[in-house]
Amino acid sequence: MLKNWLVCLAVVLGAIVIGTLVFQDENLKDIKTERENEEKESILELGVLAPEFQLTTLGEEKRSLLDYRGRFLLINFWATWCSACNEEIKYLQKAYQDMDSEKLSFLTISLDHNRRALEYFIQKNGYTVPVLYSQQKVIDDYRCHIIPATYLIDPAGKIVYRKLGFKKGDIAELDRTLKTIVEGKNLIHLSTALKQKF
Fold first, then answer.
1. Residues 6+ apart with CB under 8 A from 59
2. Is 74 left (phi over 0), alpha (psi -120 to 50) or beta?
3. How far apart, in whole angstroms, are the C-alpha atoms of residue 64 and residue 116?
4. Domain regions of the chain by residue span
5. What is the rounded CA–CA span in Å between residue 13 and residue 18?
6. Which CATH fold would you assign to the domain 54-197?
């Protein structure tokens, strides 16, 4: 009798464990799907008009997206406390020095709250790439709650490239893209190629 009772108990416990694992697996799939959907919704689509903004530089100059119509514009959202951003901003400073032209302009938008700390960081590193102070509306409009976030806007004001976060190889890829613009190669096909890739 005790043996039968133990067998029954083992079967019931086994069923509970298996049921729990299956339920957890289904819940994890649902959570993963929800996250994937949220990520898709949180990224601006390629080919759409970039959201307009007007922000202030460190030198108190107003800059607007409309100021850059007729040329490509790289916009990078970053912060001094973000180590990946610090890697990318070093590259952007060099790219700005080497490639800023009538064809391509650069703007970085800082998410830092401490203006003095930001100014100190810029001065200490000798950065000259334009830095704008962000506003929450701009962060929301560009859906860049992950930083660094980089957008390339074409001369018509449409987003043709986007990158959220930072991984090895990103700088080389971005460098090739920017050099293509500056050298005037395949500009007609750039938007199509980037749309297919991203």
1. none
2. beta
3. 23
4. 1-41, 54-197
5. 9
6. Glutaredoxin (3.40.30)
